Structure formats: structure tokens, C-alpha cells
């Protein structure tokens, strides 16, 4: 047990940083109209639709958005979608790529958008990502295909929401499963999206790890090996945050000396605990048993 404790009794330098950003499109361009993150170099929709039924212009001014709060009512992204059951190989999709600055990772959080489909348009919208090569859906929503606009929200879920270090992450927004009758016309847009809001988190991927012998014993976390669901702190600590190894925030608190933070709801594994002691930022890696 002593060897196991020593293995994980490490302190992580405060270069570990997170920044959540909302990117917004009014669909007058493939680039967002708002959203800035120093750790992300670019965010943009693809210039063309994927698996489009014929050729259609991506940016259109037909059938402008309306009927929900925040509808911009100018341009939108249009596609000629197929009616068939969802297939990532053949269903029509829009794509957006988030490219981090070297040394950073991208975490996918959520997506909201207005959608309008005609009678041959999609009845379901499903999101996949390049993180697992579009193998598993990370969110889906059913939509109307009655030529009216609706605002839709998807909170991403699953185990593959964090990209690799320095790697761009592409989302594909698939339209499929039309419940309507008739056959989609070749080269005619039957699905439109607008007022898109994408929330992502960037995190520095590299963590500088140093031995705890260089830090005053017990000044921060007293039990780097967490056996009884309680992280014990040796000082008054402000802004305690617990991150999983994907850089996702999973717990927040502030504690007094010898106070504890209960982490019973967290799975077994490694976590990074950060906080401020006497105005000094500290970080430490812990192992929850």
C-alpha cells in the first residue's frame, strides 16, 4: 500500500487550465459571429454538405428562421437530405471542425440550433464526432418536418467527448429518418439549420508532474490515495476543483483546514485536484480507490 500511495503522491503544476467557450453562427458565413478562446485556433463549418442529394448552395436566404426566441431571420445552411434511416456512410450531414492550439485538447459540451424540414426532410438529427471516427452517437433529437422552424438543444453524452492532444475535432450533424411521404427532389434543399450555438472546453494537455517531497507535507491534499470517498485538506483551501483525466470539471468546493470533500459519486481512478492556499495556486494528482 505504501508503494501504491507513493506512486500517486504527485503534485501537478498549475499549467493545467480549462476554458469553456460558446461559438455562435447566424449562418451568413461558415465562421462564427462570436466566441473567442486563446487555446483554440479556428472553428468553422465545412464549405459543403456531406452526402448531399445533388448539388445545393450551403448558405441560402430562402425560408429564413422564425418562430423561436433568437431567430436571426437572415441566412441559413441548407441541404438536400435523403429520407432513409440513419447511416453515417450515406445520410446527409453538416460538419463543423474545432482546431486547438498545439498542446491543447478539445472537449465537446453541447449544441443548439434552429431546424426546418419540408415533408421529405429529416425526422431525426444525430451528432457524431471524429474522436471515435464517427462510431457512436453523442446526441440526438427528433424534429418536425412540417416546414416550420423549431429550436433544438443537445447536451453531448458518452465516453468519447475529449479529443487527442493538438488534434482537430469534427462534428457531423446528420439528418435522417424522414416520416414524410414522397421522394426528395434532386438538388433541392429540404432541410435547413440556423442560429447555431456550440459549446466546447479547451484544456492544456500536458501536465508537469513533480514529486511531493518538493511541497510542504500536508499543506494541500493530505491523502493522495483516497480510500474512503473523502479528500482531506491540510489547510484552508479556496476554489477547490476536481478534474478527471480528460480535463472535465467534476466537483467544486471550498474547505477549511482538515476539511473534506466527498467524492463518493466519482468512479475509481485518477483525478487532478486544484485550489488556492494563501493566494498560491496548487494542484495535486489523487487516486480514488
From TrEMBL:
InterPro entries with a match to the protein in the record: Secre_tail
Signal sequence, start to end: 1-19
Domain of life: Bacteria
Keywords: Signal
Protein name as annotated: T9SS type A sorting domain-containing protein
